[in-house]
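fyi for ur records
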Amino acid sequence: MTEQYVTLAEVKDLLTAENLERELLPTQKAAMEHAEKTAALSTEDAKALMAEVMEIEGVTDYVAVKIADLIPQFPEDVRAIFSKERITLDAPFITKIIEVVSKYL
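which gave:
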């Protein structure tokens, strides 16, 4: 078994499919409600956004998922996402990320 980061859009799709087969547990229902309320992108758009930001050097799988979930529109938002990462954030790097995200708004 391998671990993989998934976006809120993917969580919503996975739990919706699971709900068709059987009734969800209360925690799964809560997770699905949260994903439905907060997922800003479709699964396809989230995956495309992730793929595009991962082409930028320094963006990991984890950070790409956070970017797809949070849709940062301002430099402060990008800095918050990268706050625990060991990477130097310069203005061109932040601008690249915001430009990529703006394509999916």
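The CA atoms of residues 29 and 95 lie 37 Å apart. thats all i got for now
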